Amino acid sequence: ELRHRASPWQRNLGYPLAMLGLLALTGISVLIVCFHVLELLLDDAAMPRGMQDTSLGQVSFSIFGSFGAALQVVLILYLMVSSVVGFYSSPLFTRLLPERQDTPLTKIIGNCVSLLVLSSALPVFSRTLGITRFDLLGDFGRFNWLGNFYIVFLYNMGFAGLTTLCLVKRVSWAVQAELIRAFGEDG
Length: 187
Fold this sequence. Notes:
InterPro entries: LIMR (IPR008075), LMBR1-like_membr_prot (IPR006876). This is LMBRL protein. The protein is mostly helical. 67% of the residues lie in helices and 0% in strands. It is built from five helices and no strands. The mean pLDDT is 80.
């Protein structure tokens, strides 16, 4: 119903651009994680440990300078939004979705707790995946398990593998459905 009410500009330009943007952000995330996996295999300094006396502004946190830092911010925001969407899309938590003007207080508290947990895990998540090396002033790099190569390696491989699988599945199903619809109308 929303698709039918959308303007032709939205349908023909807006939705495809949004889809390409999401595909690009997902692809860049997977490429950065794959690069981080290679760094983990070759260099022990790639482990997501805490920073040692690095003052903010004296050292660049990205090899691409300002562009890389902006890309890191965009990727972290993308990961934040996608984790919230994924959380509320899971079958276990769909009942937690707030309803307009009809949300009980216990559901509001549950949403607040869920969003607090997700936002607290985001710095560790982005640091473990190698998307950023910035500690976000929380000293998250001092967790003991962040020094364990196998945990960090498997976490990165799991993210890269599952994200790629999800991306291929969604894109291939959408392409198959579109081809079936296009050839079904002609035949």
